[in-house]
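Posting this for the archive.
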Amino acid sequence: MTEMMSNGVELMFAGMGIVFLFLTMLVGAINLMSSLVQRFFPDMPVMGIMPAVPGGIDKTIIAAISAAVHQYRHKQ
């Protein structure tokens, strides 16, 4: 019985060691891929939304859109 227990404990530690090594290698591979992607495909700068009219949008248009949205929401 003692021999079977020691074999079971050995097998348990071997299995836990293999899982630990696999997870460590997985984390390393993910970090490596992340650094490679960041190096070769850097984030593109996000361009702000440009107004359609060079001087901005007329305040009467904004008021008309706001009134239309308010009226639509009030009916719903």
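Residues 2-44+52-75 form one domain. The chain has two helices and no strands.
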